[in-house]
Automatic annotation (TrEMBL):
Protein name: Macrophage migration inhibitory factor-like protein
Family statement: Belongs to the MIF family.
Species this chain originates from: Rehmannia glutinosa
Pfam families xrefs: MIF (PF01187)
Domain of life: Eukaryota
Transmembrane region(s): none
């Protein structure tokens, strides 16, 4: 089950979050190759967050998936999620950081 957790300093009051969640769910599902009903999305707004020493709109996200993650998938996730945040929350893609974790890989390495 892929889980995308986004924290942003953008206030979500007045933002159409239904379409944000829908777009993010579809994107993660298609890119990671998992059914939409297995995708979890969390978005936390108004988080105390600075990037580059200022409080302009920015976001930090983490995605964890059990399988389905490789270098090409990471690139697509970064570009696509960054574009969605730019279009929906007006966060420039240059002020967005995504940490990607493949839970299957992490479990294998911990046994070594």
């Amino acid at each position: 089950m892929p889980c995308l957790d986004i924290s942003t300093n953008v206030n979500l009051d007045g933002i159409e979050t239904d379409s944000l969640f829908s777009d993010l769910t579809k994107a993660v599902s298609q890119i990671v190759g998992k059914p939409e009903n297995f995708v979890m999305i969390l978005v936390k707004g108004s988080v105390a967050l600075t990037f580059g020493g200022n409080k302009e709109p920015a976001a930090l996200a983490e995605i964890v998936s059990m399988g389905g993650i490789n270098t090409e998938v990471k690139r697509k996730l970064i570009v696509t999620i960054g574009s969605i945040l730019q279009n929906k929350l007006f966060i420039p893609r240059t002020r967005f950081v995504l940490k990607v974790f493949n839970a299957t890989t992490a479990q294998k390495s911990s046994k070594l």
